Amino acid sequence: MARRMTVITCCLGLSLTVLPGCAVNPATGEEEMMLFSPEKDVAMGKKYAPAIEKELGGLIPDDNLQNYVNQIGQKIARVCHQPDLSYHYAVVDDKMTNALALPGGYVYITRGLLAELKTEAQLAAVLAHETGHVVARDTMAALSRQIGTLAVLGAVGAGSDSPSAVHGASVMAGLLSLQYSREDEKDADLTGLSYMTQAGYDPNGMVETMKILEELQTIRPIEFFSTHPNPDSRILYLEDRIARRYADLHGLKVGKEEYAERVLTPLAQRKEKERIKAQDLDSWGRKEEPAP
Questions:
Q1: Pick the catalytic residue: 39, 55, 120, 130?
Q2: Residue 165 burial by CB count (10 A; 0-12/13-18/19+): exposed, middle or buried?
Q3: How many domains does the chain have?
Q4: Active-site residue, 130 included
């Protein structure tokens, strides 16, 4: 699907025309309109990753958990269409149920989403899906559509070490609230399915993850579907692809026990510590009632 070229006129009377360029999407093989070089993607990711991490509660201070998630992500990265990028996979301490891919190889998953998953294969599915967005450069395309090319240029323009406050705020807001297209989502699903299987994980983990998310959506609106629109027949086309391409594969990893030990137990312990700390703070804040 060709991306639309954007032409923006500055309110200060300066005109800026962005000349179109063409690039082949490595994941789909389709030629697309692309306004920015891959180097700009990397520059933006590197520039905004620290601020995004802070906005999402910071990285969970658990090296074992972070290393576990990153190791799984790196398995995905090694088999993706752009293994030469420097990929970063991390857990942010946010209760919302979501995952986020920044341009240039920065992938985050929230504590809230980790707590809902049950297996390592399901985690691999999320990381593979987000890696698919990175490879296809969907984040930059969606960001350009939502906040305008001028803001993006201001943030990643050549020779600019720090964006203006206006541009910086616009890009931050866009990164945290951008919406992919349904076509982008379907491509990321199918690309991620390929990546996770090549990395040695049971592709059914992708279907299981989508079922978990859709069940949560029946209880309350979840953040994943606010930024990742749910394509029609998502589970059906995933099951169809698995049946046609991966049904004969055996011995692929599910990793239920590993996930419980490396993720669910530490998260439960952390939640309990937070509960006890909150109780202690609450008790300290209460004044003793005077004796009658």
A1: 130
A2: exposed
A3: 1
A4: yes
